[in-house]
TrEMBL record:
Its cofactor is Mg(2+). Its EC number is 2.7.3.9. Belongs to the PEP-utilizing enzyme family. The keyword RNA-binding does not apply. The keyword Repeat does not apply. This is phosphoenolpyruvate--protein phosphotransferase. It is found in: Cytoplasm. One of its GO terms (cellular component) is cytoplasm. Pfam families: GAF_2, PEP-utilisers_N, PEP-utilizers, PEP-utilizers_C. Residues 26-172 form the GAF domain. It comes from the Bacteria.
Length: 780
């Protein structure tokens, strides 16, 4: 793979994958989208994602691009095949001749006989293998270290996507279950089995219960507005063909108007939603500018067809080509083509758009809802959507979800049942649409809607509320991030800044060391993403389990005890100086703090300070502006640092405890080795006493102390850590609301009581049992 392509692949794929997290609302959809994206970017014939079942021994194929679709769901033991070997070895397996590999096993259902090369990369949830990302090609392909590194980075990102999607999925399933039971109750009420207050349920004469696909959760009850699309063919049929030059001119002008209209919609959606959602219209714009598309229409006009007819003919050809596609995602693109065609035809007719002017709140009912319909509507007045066509992947579905409008698509016979005076219930959770519902159904939905709104309000409220205990102790909840797209995810979950920005990512997603300018622009974007909020940028932390494909790393027997992190940075001062200069240059754009990983003592800190001061001098000489008072902090992740913590805190502005490493180094227990997993225990008294020692030392010196390891992501752990004296946590953003809820529920006094009890205990097992009981008691 050429260098540029490697860089592109890593960065673009990661950015796109992050966009998928926001767009996909269930795990399957997310995985399907990822395999399609990665297969395309890697130019591979096959891309598959296998997830490890709960037993830790069975792998199940969850999504594939390239293998037989029937094979989705097949299972295999980790003792079989090359994919199993990836999990067993907990490392990459790559071969250009898979059938010759001693561990090769052919799985009939996959129909993979024509596949020769294999690249399998594991991904982990914390330290437990979670699944394998597999890339296969028909030809013998030698995967370069650069490609392997890019795929490993993608696999790394997939692990967090899978965790997040699983979380979302379980929330959605709970909603669906509740809606199912509610629907059951309604059904029983309607059939008269269940009576309300002894009164038989009254049935409205024209009522109907229809089902479709719930594509955006929530409930809506109200009057309808039926959206009529003028069929593009109507104009085409009535068309009087003008002289060719005139028709061509009309088409060009209509095309230009359609482009302007599309840009307007992209802008409008970008303001209302996100850039990712607005990108739908960017893809429309690309089609409107596509030479092939324009040439086909122009050729038809030159052959004597009127502009309307020519546009329709070409658009219809695209629509039916997309509609025939096997891939459901691509199939839904036919709706986008229809939308584009309609926009050009509207422009040809001199209509600006089919703007639906809603005077009051309405449920939109339509045969099909196109992205532009939704873009130009008054979203405040659209309380629900029901359509006959469309599914989860339709862009309008993605938009409805992003706008939070309950919607059901694919409801057969909808327009036959609904009239202008109808009242409708849209249940986006269960996919039900009730037309003219009777009294009992309405009542049930009013109740459900009340509950739903309450829950939504509670979540929204908590996002902007401080993480403050009932007795007034405020805790800061910041996010751990690695990619630019994490900025959005962090805000979505109410992060109050960044407690740990792992700069390995901009290094990993490139094919050579990024220059000072490239680094500075990435860091600047992160800082600009959090205006007025603190951002702690950690210097390069490679080595151990994190490598850079382009940076030769010696083979070591104990990489975690080897040339890692700050040791490498101090040996390669050139790299460190460039990074410090880049961070300093970016520091002018926000509230930037420097953070140094894997510090063992004061000597290292002083050396770093000397280098930092030289870099500052250089920048001053160059006339560059930067924050001269930039915060200077160290990560506490080695037992050595704990033992000298009183000396360390005097040297720095703040400390941040990295429990992922602290646990492994305190207990001499590889954080990635499943054999010693049971010894890798955050509740070991040595770990908890170490944390307490840091909290006390920092408090004694009047310096802030935070914790940025995975440990803080569990609500009960956050309560315990609060009790040990910590007031700032940096965690994976999706965990922030859960932790905030715990902080807001448990008093500092109770947290201290828990902390004191735990510190007095001698075994990790009894601490675990005690915390489990406390968690139940506190309802966490
Ligand atoms: C840690 O060690 O706890 C930490 C946050 O750093 P990393 O996981 O990147 O090593
Ligand atoms: Mg660490």
């Amino acid at each position: 793979m050429p260098e540029e392509a490697g860089e592109q692949l890593g960065l673009r794929t990661l950015e796109d994958i992050s966009a998928l997290i926001l767009q996909s609302h269930d795990l399957q959809e997310t995985l399907d989208n990822i395999v399609n994206l990665v297969a395309k970017r890697m130019s591979s014939d096959v891309c598959s994602i296998y997830l490890l079942e709960e037993d830790g021994e069975t792998l199940r194929l969850h999504a594939t691009r390239g293998l037989s679709r029937l094979s989705v769901g097949i299972t295999m033991k980790i003792s079989e095949g090359l994919t199993g070997l990836v999990v067993e070895q907990r490392g990459v397996v790559a071969t250009d001749n898979a059938p010759r590999h001693p561990r090769y096993k052919y799985f009939r259902k996959t129909k993979e006989e024509k596949v020769l090369s294999f690249l399998g990369v594991p991904f982990f949830e914390r330290d437990t293998p979670m699944g394998v990302l597999v890339i296969q090609n028909r030809e013998a392909r030698t995967f370069t270290p650069q490609e392997i590194s890019a795929v490993s980075t993608i696999a790394w990102q997939i692990s967090s996507i899978v965790s997040n999607a699983k979380l979302l999925d379980s929330v959605r399933k709970k909603e669906e279950e509740r809606a199912f039971f509610a629907a059951e109750v309604d059904r029983l009420k309607k059939s008269g089995v269940l009576k309300e207050g002894g009164r038989p349920a009254r049935k409205s004469p024209s009522s109907a219960a229809l089902t479709g696909i719930g594509i955006s959760p929530g409930f809506a009850l109200g009057k309808v507005s039926i959206l009529h699309h003028r069929g593009p063919t109507e104009e085409a049929v009535l068309e009087r063909v003008r002289p060719r030059a005139e028709e061509l001119n009309m088409f060009q002008q209509a095309l230009e108007k359609a482009r302007i209209h599309t840009i307007y919609m992209e802008k409008r959606m970008g303001e209302i939603l996100s850039e990712a959602d607005a990108a739908i219209f960017h893809s429309h714009l690309m089609i409107l500018e596509d030479r092939g598309f324009i040439a086909k229409i122009t050729a038809l006009i030159e052959d004597g067809l009127g502009a309307h007819r020519a546009v329709n003919q070409v658009v219809e050809a695209y629509v039916s080509a997309f509609a025939r596609m096997e891939d459901p995602y691509l199939r839904e693109r036919s709706a986008d083509m229809e939308d584009i065609g309609r926009r050009i035809c509207d422009a040809l007719n001199g209509h600006s758009s089919h703007r639906e002017r809603l005077r009051e709140e309405r449920i939109i009912v339509a045969r099909e809802l196109l992205p532009s319909d939704l873009a130009i509507m008054d979203h405040g007045k659209v309380i629900g959507i029901a359509t006959e066509k469309g599914n989860q992947n339709a862009h309008s579905a993605i938009m409805a979800r992003a706008l939070g409008i309950p919607a059901v698509f694919g409801v057969e016979g909808l327009l036959q049942q609904v009239g202008v005076r109808s009242e409708v219930v849209v249940d986006g959770n269960s996919g039900c649409v009730y037309v003219n519902p009777d009294h009992s159904v309405k009542q049930e939905y009013v109740r459900l809607q009340g509950e739903f709104d309450q829950k939504q309000r509670a979540l929204e409220e908590i996002r902007d509320l401080p993480a403050c205990t009932p007795d007034g102790c405020t805790v800061s909840l910041l996010a751990n991030i690695g990619l630019l797209s994490d900025i959005k995810v962090a805000h979505l979950h109410g992060a109050e800044g960044v407690g740990l920005y792992r700069t390995e990512f901009p290094f990993m997603t490139r094919s050579s060391l990024p220059t000072r300018q490239v680094q500075a622009s990435v860091y600047r974007k992160v800082l600009e993403g959090f205006p007025d909020l603190p951002v702690h940028i950690r210097t390069l932390d490679i080595g151990g389990d994190k490598g850079l494909s382009y940076f030769p790393h010696p083979k070591e027997d104990n990489p975690f005890l080897g040339w890692r992190s700050m040791r490498l940075s101090l040996d390669r001062e050139d790299i460190l100086r460039e990074q410090l200069a880049a961070i300093l240059i970016a520091s002018a754009s926000g509230k930037c703090h420097l953070m140094f990983p894997m510090i063992s003592g004061v000597d290292e800190v002083r050396r770093i300070k000397a280098i930092l001061s030289q870099v500052k001098d250089e920048l001053t000489r160059e006339g560059r502006s930067f924050d001269p008072e930039i915060g200077f902090g160290v990560m506490v992740e080695l037992p050595a640092a704990i033992l000298v913590i009183d000396m360390l805190v005097k040297e720095v502005d703040y400390v941040s405890i990295g429990t992922n490493d602290l646990i492994q180094y305190t207990l001499a227990c590889d954080r990635n080795n499943p054999r010693v997993k049971k010894w890798y225990d955050p509740y070991h008294p040595a770990v908890l006493h170490s944390i307490k020692k840091v909290a006390d030392a920092a408090a004694g010196a009047g310096k802030p102390a935070s914790l940025c390891g995975e440990m803080a992501g569990e609500p009960i752990n956050a309560v315990l850590l609060m009790g040990l004296g910590l007031r700032c946590f940096s965690l994976s953003a999706p965990n922030i609301p859960r932790v905030k809820e715990a902080v807001r529920r448990v008093s500092l006094q109770k947290a201290r009581e828990i902390g004191d009890r735990v510190l007095a205990m001698e075994s990790a097992q009894s601490i675990r049992e005690y915390l489990e009981a406390a968690q139940r008691e506190l309802g966490l």
